[in-house]
Amino acid sequence: MTPETTAPRCEIAVIVPVHNAETYLPDCLDSLAAQRFDNFCCILVDDGSTDDSPRICDETACADGRFLVLHQAQSGVSAARTAGMRAAREQGAIWLAFCDADDRYHPDFLRTLHNAAQEAALPLACCRYDTFTDTCPAEAPAPAAFRTLRAPEHLEALLHDHAVDYGLWNKLYAAGLLTEAMLDNGLAYNEDLLANWKAFLRAPGCAFCDFAGYHYRQHAESATHRALPPQSIDDQRRAAALIRGSVPPQWPELQQSANAFYYEKLVYLASMIQRRADADTYRVHLGELNIGITAGLKDPQLGRNPKLPLTIRLAAWATVHTPKLWRRICRRFLKDRQ
C-alpha cells in the first residue's frame, strides 16, 4: 500500500513582491527572519529585477528554509502578489500576509495578528503602521488586547480610519478570504484599496491591534514620493467609484460614508494636481474632476453629506469658486508630489 502523501503546510505565508529593491531588501528580509512566530514561510516573488535583488533572494532561500523564491518576467506588483498567493496555497498556507520589499515588520507582527484573529474567530486582523527614512522607530511591546470591528464598522474604518489604512501590508488574511481577481483587479494605483474593500465585504469583521506592527519606509523611490501619472488619477477615481457602487443595501449609513469618500477623493485628486508646477498638463483631468466637484457641491449625498469633513467642504468650495487662490494655497502648503 502506498503511503498517503500530504501537501506541505505552513500556518502563515508572507508574500513579498520584489523589483529592483537591492538597497533595502536585506533589511526587510532580516525583519522577516526575526519574526517571533514559529510556523511561517516567506515567498519572495522576483518580478523581473535587473539589479542584485535576485541574488539576494536566492541566497536568503538557501540559508533559511522558511524562504522560497519565484522568478518571473516583470509583470507588476499585483501579478507578483497573485503569483505569491498561488505559491502560498501550494504550501498549504492557512493565512496570508504581505510585505513590501523596502519595509519592515515588528518582530511580533505575525504572532500578534494571528493571535487576535484566532481569539476573535475572524478571518481578518490588522494593526497600525509608522513611517521612517533611515532609522526604524523604536518598537514598543505588542499588545495582548485587541479591538473587534464588526461589520459594517470595519468597512467604515477601511475608508476613513488612517490606523486601518488601505494597504495590504498591515493586515493578516485567512487564505480563503482573498481571490486572484481581488489582487489582480486591473488597477495600478489604489489596487490595494479595492482589494481590501472586496475582502472586507466578505469578512464579518476585523480584529484591530493597536500597535505599529508595520514600518513603512519613506524614500525617493517609494510610491508616495513618485510623480503623478495620469493613470494614477484615473485609477484612484475608478476605485472610489467602484466602492461607492458596491455597498450592500442593508447598510444605508455605510452608503452615506462611501458617498463622502468618493467626493473627498475628487477634491483630493484636484488638489494633487493644483499643487504641481506642471498643473496645466493635467487640464483635462482637472476639468473632469471640477465638473464632478461642482455638480456635487449642493448634493446631500456628496458635497453636503454630513459625513464629509468640513475641511473637504471648504476645499471643494474653493476649488470651484476661487480656483486661482486655491491653487496658490495648494502649492504653498501641500508639498508632496510637486
From TrEMBL:
Any one Gene Ontology MF annotation carried by this entry is:
glycosyltransferase activity
**Where along the sequence do coiled-coil regions lie?**
none
Provide this UniProt record's keywords sorted from A to Z: Glycosyltransferase, Transferase
What domain of life is recorded for the organism?
Answer: Bacteria
Zinc as a keyword?
A: no
Annotated ranges, domain Glycosyltransferase 2-like: 14-133
Q: Which SUPFAM superfamilies match?
A: Nucleotide-diphospho-sugar transferases
Q: Report the Gene3D superfamilies cross-referenced here.
A: Spore Coat Polysaccharide Biosynthesis Protein SpsA, Chain A (3.90.550.10)
The record's Pfam families line, in alphabetical order, gives: Glycos_transf_2 (PF00535)
- Entry protein name: Glycosyltransferase family 2 protein
Name the species this protein comes from: Candidatus Gemmiger excrementavium
Please name the taxonomic classification of the source.
Bacteria, Bacillati, Bacillota, Clostridia, Eubacteriales
